[in-house]
């Protein structure tokens, strides 16, 4: 068994690399190291391919692998609003080009990372895979187009996983898209107040990165679109208070108000369910 993991030196990708190695896979990493780091990877990973998805740089010839886990993508909603072309090129068309190349390398199984952002500000919670999609940024629209393009690969096993808010070790707290949790963690470690936007009543579904890695592994060889979340709705203010009593409220942002995944389909089809509770994890790192 041999898998190629794009974005394999990044936050989620490096955990997937660890998980697959533990399951006996040979693993190839492809990353442009724009946000990933060699420090995230175990010793002895060979080969490492430096490549930007969607670029004109040629992909290597003669490589053989049976599984592609595709996690590499730009992830900033704000940046996508000013550079939509890059997001559609790298996320949608770049993925299609990558899949065609992978098939030439003998790949039969694909796991593609999508996002809960395709649902937009949908108030019909919990969100299931049949919920109305309403992407509100070029980033989310590009991911949805990627999903649609992936449907055409009917002769292969193609899993699309819509990740909700992933948290855990190795998550960045600067640059591009940054989640609230690594920001809160860094603020506490530096003795600063925890900054909460608006009144903090907005909610998110936070899912632990190692649970996500397990879902990706269990997805290999299947064909569907599934939500990957915790199935829990966490208020941002409650998360902030779990980190510190020293809270500073800052200006409200234009963002969705509530989010919660229905993960029954992942449980039904993959026998997967999240194991790590966010508040227990916060206690463990304080």
Please explain how this structure is put together:
This protein is an alpha/beta fold and 286 residues long. It has a single domain (2-169, 207-230, 258-276), classed as Rossmann fold. 34% of the residues lie in helices and 19% in strands. It contains 9 helices and 13 strands. Strands 3-2-1-4-5-6-11 form a 7-stranded parallel sheet, sandwiched between helices. A two-stranded parallel sheet has the order 7-10. The radius of gyration is 18 Å and the shape is globular.
Write the layout of secondary structure elements.
Blueprint: E1 2-6, H1 11-22, E2 26-30, E3 48-49, E4 67-70, H2 77-82, H3 84-104, E5 109-115, H4 138-150, E6 157-163, E7 165-167, H5 180-189, E8 194-197, E9 203-204, E10 206-208, H6 209-219, E11 224-228, E12 234-235, H7 236-243, E13 247-250, H8 264-270, H9 278-285
Parallel strand pairs: 1-2, 1-4, 2-3, 4-5, 5-6, 6-11, 7-10, 8-13
Antiparallel strand pairs: 9-12
Helix pairs in contact: 1-6, 3-4, 5-7
Name the beta content range.
15-25%
Question: In DSSP terms, counting alpha (H) and pi (I) runs of 4 or more, how many helices?
Answer: 9
Largest sheet: 7 strands, parallel
Q: Could you say what the CATH topology is called? A: Rossmann fold
CATH level-1 class: Alpha Beta
Give the overall pLDDT as a whole number.
96
* End-to-end C-alpha gap: 39 Å
CATH superfamily: NAD(P)-binding Rossmann-like Domain
Order of helices and strands: EHEEEHHEHEEHEEEHEEHEHH
- Binned, the helix content reads 25-40%
Write down how many β-strands occur, each being a DSSP E stretch of 2 or more residues: 13
By secondary-structure content and strand pairing, the structural class works out as alpha/beta
**Envelope shape:** globular
**Radius of gyration over C-alpha positions, nearest whole angstrom:** 18 Å
Order of adjacent strands in the largest pleated sheet: 3-2-1-4-5-6-11
CATH architecture: 3-Layer(aba) Sandwich
Low-confidence stretches: none
Number of domains: 1
């Amino acid at each position: 068994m041999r898998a190629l993991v794009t974005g394999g030196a990044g936050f989620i990708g490096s955990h997937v690399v660890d998980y697959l190695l533990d399951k006996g896979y040979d693993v190839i990493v492809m990353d442009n190291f724009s946000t990933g780091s060699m420090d995230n990877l175990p010793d002895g990973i060979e080969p490492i391919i430096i490549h930007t998805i969607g670029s004109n740089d040629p992909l290597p010839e003669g490589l053989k692998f049976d599984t592609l886990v595709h996690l590499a993508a730009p992830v900033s909603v704000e940046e996508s609003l000013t550079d939509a072309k890059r997001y559609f090129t790298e996320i949608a068309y770049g993925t299609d080009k990558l899949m065609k190349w992978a098939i030439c390398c003998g790949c039969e199984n694909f796991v593609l990372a999508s996002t809960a952002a395709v649902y937009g500000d949908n108030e019909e919670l919990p969100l299931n895979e049949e919920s109305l999609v309403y992407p509100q940024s070029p980033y989310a629209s590009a991911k949805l187009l990627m999903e649609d393009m992936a449907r055409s690969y009917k002769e292969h096993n193609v899993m699309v996983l819509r990740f909700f808010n992933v948290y855990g070790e190795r998550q960045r707290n600067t640059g591009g898209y940054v989640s609230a949790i690594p920001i809160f963690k860094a603020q506490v470690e530096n003795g600063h107040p925890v900054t909460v936007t608006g009144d903090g009543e907005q909610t998110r579904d936070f899912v632990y990165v190692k649970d996500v890695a397990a879902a990706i592994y269990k997805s290999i060889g299947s064909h569907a679109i599934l939500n990957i979340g915790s199935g829990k709705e966490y208020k941002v203010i409650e998360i902030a208070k779990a980190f510190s009593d020293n809270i500073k409220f800052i200006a409200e942002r234009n963002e969705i108000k509530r989010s919660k995944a229905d993960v029954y389909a992942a449980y039904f089809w993959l026998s997967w369910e999240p194991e790590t509770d966010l508040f227990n994890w916060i206690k463990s790192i304080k």
